[in-house]
Design a protein that fits this description.
globular, about 270 residues, alpha/beta, single chain, Rossmann fold, 10 helices
Length: about 270
Protein backbone atom coordinates (compact mmCIF):
# COMPACT_ATOMS: atom_id res chain seq x y z
CA UNK A 1 0.00 0.00 0.00
CA UNK A 2 1.11 3.54 -0.74
CA UNK A 3 2.44 5.84 1.97
CA UNK A 4 -0.03 8.69 2.48
CA UNK A 5 0.98 12.23 3.44
CA UNK A 6 -1.90 14.43 4.64
CA UNK A 7 -1.26 18.17 4.49
CA UNK A 8 -3.75 20.60 6.01
CA UNK A 9 -3.58 24.18 4.81
CA UNK A 10 -2.46 22.46 1.63
CA UNK A 11 -3.05 25.46 -0.64
CA UNK A 12 -0.79 27.83 1.33
CA UNK A 13 2.80 28.65 0.45
CA UNK A 14 4.27 26.18 2.94
CA UNK A 15 1.66 23.51 2.26
CA UNK A 16 2.37 23.51 -1.48
CA UNK A 17 6.15 23.46 -1.01
CA UNK A 18 5.83 20.51 1.40
CA UNK A 19 3.52 18.65 -0.99
CA UNK A 20 6.05 18.98 -3.81
CA UNK A 21 8.76 17.32 -1.74
CA UNK A 22 6.90 14.62 0.20
CA UNK A 23 4.78 13.75 -2.84
CA UNK A 24 7.84 12.11 -4.36
CA UNK A 25 7.58 9.30 -1.83
CA UNK A 26 3.88 8.51 -1.87
CA UNK A 27 0.33 9.77 -2.13
CA UNK A 28 -0.54 13.33 -1.08
CA UNK A 29 -3.92 14.25 0.40
CA UNK A 30 -4.34 18.03 0.50
CA UNK A 31 -6.93 19.52 2.83
CA UNK A 32 -8.08 23.11 2.95
CA UNK A 33 -11.20 25.10 3.74
CA UNK A 34 -11.35 26.57 0.21
CA UNK A 35 -12.37 24.11 -2.51
CA UNK A 36 -11.48 26.37 -5.46
CA UNK A 37 -7.93 26.84 -4.17
CA UNK A 38 -7.63 23.09 -3.62
CA UNK A 39 -8.59 22.36 -7.22
CA UNK A 40 -6.13 24.98 -8.47
CA UNK A 41 -3.32 23.64 -6.24
CA UNK A 42 -3.91 20.09 -7.41
CA UNK A 43 -3.68 21.26 -11.03
CA UNK A 44 -0.39 23.05 -10.27
CA UNK A 45 1.11 19.95 -8.67
CA UNK A 46 -0.06 17.64 -11.45
CA UNK A 47 1.49 20.03 -14.00
CA UNK A 48 4.78 19.61 -12.09
CA UNK A 49 4.61 15.86 -12.58
CA UNK A 50 2.94 14.68 -9.35
CA UNK A 51 0.51 11.87 -10.06
CA UNK A 52 -1.00 10.82 -6.73
CA UNK A 53 -2.64 14.01 -5.49
CA UNK A 54 -6.02 13.91 -3.76
CA UNK A 55 -7.96 16.80 -2.25
CA UNK A 56 -10.62 17.21 0.40
CA UNK A 57 -12.39 20.34 1.64
CA UNK A 58 -12.01 20.46 5.42
CA UNK A 59 -12.68 22.89 8.24
CA UNK A 60 -10.20 21.65 10.85
CA UNK A 61 -12.36 23.03 13.68
CA UNK A 62 -15.14 20.60 12.71
CA UNK A 63 -14.52 17.13 14.20
CA UNK A 64 -16.73 15.41 11.61
CA UNK A 65 -14.81 17.07 8.78
CA UNK A 66 -11.51 15.93 10.26
CA UNK A 67 -12.82 12.41 10.86
CA UNK A 68 -13.83 12.23 7.20
CA UNK A 69 -10.32 13.37 6.25
CA UNK A 70 -8.75 10.65 8.40
CA UNK A 71 -11.04 8.05 6.83
CA UNK A 72 -10.10 9.25 3.35
CA UNK A 73 -6.40 8.99 4.25
CA UNK A 74 -6.94 5.47 5.54
CA UNK A 75 -8.67 4.47 2.31
CA UNK A 76 -5.71 5.68 0.22
CA UNK A 77 -3.03 3.63 1.96
CA UNK A 78 -0.80 3.71 5.06
CA UNK A 79 -0.62 6.98 7.00
CA UNK A 80 3.00 8.10 6.84
CA UNK A 81 2.51 11.69 7.91
CA UNK A 82 -0.06 14.24 8.99
CA UNK A 83 1.38 17.72 8.48
CA UNK A 84 -0.76 20.47 9.97
CA UNK A 85 0.11 23.79 8.34
CA UNK A 86 -3.44 25.19 8.64
CA UNK A 87 -3.65 28.24 10.86
CA UNK A 88 -4.56 31.91 11.20
CA UNK A 89 -2.14 34.76 11.83
CA UNK A 90 -3.02 37.90 13.86
CA UNK A 91 -4.39 39.88 10.91
CA UNK A 92 -6.62 37.04 9.70
CA UNK A 93 -9.22 36.77 12.45
CA UNK A 94 -10.35 37.84 15.90
CA UNK A 95 -8.84 36.29 19.02
CA UNK A 96 -11.59 33.71 19.35
CA UNK A 97 -11.26 32.41 15.79
CA UNK A 98 -7.44 32.34 16.02
CA UNK A 99 -7.69 30.19 19.16
CA UNK A 100 -10.30 27.98 17.54
CA UNK A 101 -8.30 27.27 14.37
CA UNK A 102 -4.76 27.19 15.77
CA UNK A 103 -5.44 25.27 18.97
CA UNK A 104 -8.78 23.48 18.86
CA UNK A 105 -8.15 22.59 15.20
CA UNK A 106 -4.74 21.16 16.12
CA UNK A 107 -6.31 19.21 18.99
CA UNK A 108 -9.00 17.71 16.75
CA UNK A 109 -6.49 16.73 14.04
CA UNK A 110 -4.15 15.02 16.48
CA UNK A 111 -7.06 13.28 18.22
CA UNK A 112 -8.45 11.82 14.98
CA UNK A 113 -5.15 10.94 13.31
CA UNK A 114 -3.70 9.28 16.42
CA UNK A 115 -6.47 6.71 15.98
CA UNK A 116 -5.07 5.64 12.58
CA UNK A 117 -1.37 6.17 13.38
CA UNK A 118 0.89 3.16 12.84
CA UNK A 119 4.55 2.41 13.54
CA UNK A 120 6.48 4.95 11.48
CA UNK A 121 3.69 7.54 11.27
CA UNK A 122 4.83 11.11 11.99
CA UNK A 123 2.72 14.12 12.97
CA UNK A 124 4.25 17.51 12.18
CA UNK A 125 2.54 20.59 13.62
CA UNK A 126 3.55 24.00 12.29
CA UNK A 127 4.00 26.43 15.17
CA UNK A 128 5.81 29.78 14.92
CA UNK A 129 8.76 31.60 16.41
CA UNK A 130 6.05 33.66 18.19
CA UNK A 131 5.45 30.65 20.43
CA UNK A 132 9.01 31.05 21.71
CA UNK A 133 8.35 34.63 22.79
CA UNK A 134 5.86 33.64 25.50
CA UNK A 135 7.21 32.41 28.87
CA UNK A 136 6.68 28.67 29.32
CA UNK A 137 5.84 29.04 32.99
CA UNK A 138 2.69 31.16 33.00
CA UNK A 139 -0.77 30.24 34.36
CA UNK A 140 -1.86 29.34 30.83
CA UNK A 141 0.55 26.40 30.39
CA UNK A 142 -1.67 23.61 31.71
CA UNK A 143 -4.68 25.07 29.89
CA UNK A 144 -2.87 25.16 26.53
CA UNK A 145 -2.02 21.45 26.65
CA UNK A 146 -5.70 20.48 26.49
CA UNK A 147 -7.43 22.42 23.70
CA UNK A 148 -10.40 20.04 23.61
CA UNK A 149 -11.31 20.73 27.25
CA UNK A 150 -14.76 22.23 28.00
CA UNK A 151 -14.94 26.05 28.00
CA UNK A 152 -11.48 26.25 26.42
CA UNK A 153 -12.33 29.27 24.23
CA UNK A 154 -13.75 31.22 27.18
CA UNK A 155 -10.66 30.51 29.29
CA UNK A 156 -8.34 31.56 26.47
CA UNK A 157 -10.32 34.74 25.83
CA UNK A 158 -9.69 35.80 29.43
CA UNK A 159 -5.97 35.08 29.04
CA UNK A 160 -5.59 36.88 25.70
CA UNK A 161 -8.01 39.66 26.76
CA UNK A 162 -9.46 39.48 23.26
CA UNK A 163 -6.21 40.61 21.62
CA UNK A 164 -5.52 38.77 18.31
CA UNK A 165 -1.73 39.12 18.67
CA UNK A 166 -1.77 37.69 22.19
CA UNK A 167 -4.13 34.91 21.11
CA UNK A 168 -1.78 34.04 18.23
CA UNK A 169 1.36 33.89 20.38
CA UNK A 170 -0.42 31.83 23.04
CA UNK A 171 -1.83 29.49 20.38
CA UNK A 172 1.64 28.86 18.95
CA UNK A 173 3.10 28.21 22.40
CA UNK A 174 0.16 25.84 22.81
CA UNK A 175 1.25 23.88 19.74
CA UNK A 176 4.73 23.43 21.24
CA UNK A 177 3.26 22.25 24.55
CA UNK A 178 0.72 19.91 22.94
CA UNK A 179 3.49 18.20 20.96
CA UNK A 180 5.53 17.63 24.13
CA UNK A 181 2.43 16.50 26.02
CA UNK A 182 1.34 14.00 23.36
CA UNK A 183 4.73 12.43 22.62
CA UNK A 184 3.97 9.50 24.93
CA UNK A 185 0.58 8.72 23.34
CA UNK A 186 2.06 8.75 19.83
CA UNK A 187 5.04 6.71 21.01
CA UNK A 188 2.65 3.99 22.20
CA UNK A 189 1.69 3.57 18.53
CA UNK A 190 5.34 3.48 17.41
CA UNK A 191 4.67 6.95 15.96
CA UNK A 192 6.36 10.31 16.40
CA UNK A 193 5.11 13.87 16.86
CA UNK A 194 7.14 17.04 16.34
CA UNK A 195 6.58 20.76 15.82
CA UNK A 196 8.36 23.19 13.55
CA UNK A 197 8.56 26.93 14.26
CA UNK A 198 9.09 29.06 11.16
CA UNK A 199 10.36 32.61 11.38
CA UNK A 200 9.47 35.24 8.77
CA UNK A 201 8.74 33.23 5.62
CA UNK A 202 8.16 34.53 2.10
CA UNK A 203 4.58 33.32 1.70
CA UNK A 204 1.34 35.24 1.04
CA UNK A 205 0.47 34.95 4.76
CA UNK A 206 3.95 36.08 5.78
CA UNK A 207 3.81 39.07 3.43
CA UNK A 208 0.37 40.05 4.77
CA UNK A 209 1.68 40.08 8.33
CA UNK A 210 4.84 41.98 7.39
CA UNK A 211 2.84 44.65 5.57
CA UNK A 212 0.56 45.25 8.56
CA UNK A 213 2.92 44.83 11.50
CA UNK A 214 5.94 47.13 11.83
CA UNK A 215 7.43 44.82 14.48
CA UNK A 216 7.85 42.10 11.85
CA UNK A 217 10.18 44.33 9.83
CA UNK A 218 12.15 45.26 12.96
CA UNK A 219 12.61 41.58 13.81
CA UNK A 220 13.69 40.78 10.26
CA UNK A 221 16.32 43.54 10.49
CA UNK A 222 17.67 41.76 13.59
CA UNK A 223 17.64 38.26 12.10
CA UNK A 224 21.23 36.94 11.88
CA UNK A 225 20.76 35.62 8.32
CA UNK A 226 19.35 39.05 7.33
CA UNK A 227 16.60 37.71 5.07
CA UNK A 228 13.24 35.98 5.00
CA UNK A 229 13.06 32.23 4.73
CA UNK A 230 11.61 30.54 1.66
CA UNK A 231 8.79 27.97 1.75
CA UNK A 232 11.16 25.29 0.43
CA UNK A 233 13.40 25.87 3.47
CA UNK A 234 10.47 24.81 5.65
CA UNK A 235 9.59 21.92 3.34
CA UNK A 236 13.08 20.41 3.40
CA UNK A 237 13.01 20.31 7.22
CA UNK A 238 9.57 18.67 7.18
CA UNK A 239 10.86 16.15 4.63
CA UNK A 240 13.70 15.30 7.03
CA UNK A 241 11.47 15.13 10.11
CA UNK A 242 9.16 12.53 8.55
CA UNK A 243 12.09 10.46 7.23
CA UNK A 244 13.88 7.54 8.83
CA UNK A 245 16.82 9.90 9.29
CA UNK A 246 14.84 11.58 12.08
CA UNK A 247 13.61 8.34 13.64
CA UNK A 248 14.68 9.30 17.20
CA UNK A 249 13.23 12.83 17.12
CA UNK A 250 9.88 13.22 18.87
CA UNK A 251 8.15 15.47 21.41
CA UNK A 252 10.22 18.50 20.46
CA UNK A 253 10.29 21.63 18.32
CA UNK A 254 12.65 22.65 15.52
CA UNK A 255 13.09 26.39 14.95
CA UNK A 256 13.58 27.41 11.32
CA UNK A 257 13.79 31.15 11.83
CA UNK A 258 17.14 32.35 10.49
CA UNK A 259 18.29 32.82 14.08
CA UNK A 260 15.67 35.42 15.05
CA UNK A 261 14.82 33.91 18.44
CA UNK A 262 18.52 33.41 19.26
CA UNK A 263 18.97 37.15 18.70
CA UNK A 264 15.65 38.32 20.16
CA UNK A 265 17.14 40.13 23.15
CA UNK A 266 18.75 42.58 20.70
CA UNK A 267 15.42 43.51 19.04
CA UNK A 268 14.18 46.92 20.24
CA UNK A 269 10.74 46.75 21.86
Amino acid sequence: MSNVHVITGGTGGMGKAIAELVGKTGTVLLADVNEDRLIQTKEELVTKGMENVHIQTVDITDAENVRALANKAKSLGTLKSIINTAGLSPTMGDSKRITEVNLIGTGIILDEFLKIARPGTVAVCISSMSGHMVPKDGPYVEVLKNPLAPNFIETMEKMSQGNPGAAYSLSKLGVLLIVEHQAWAWGQKGARIVSLSPGTINTPMGRQEASQQEQMKVMLDHTPLLREGEPKEIATVVEFLISEGASYITGTDIRVDGGTIANIDKVPR
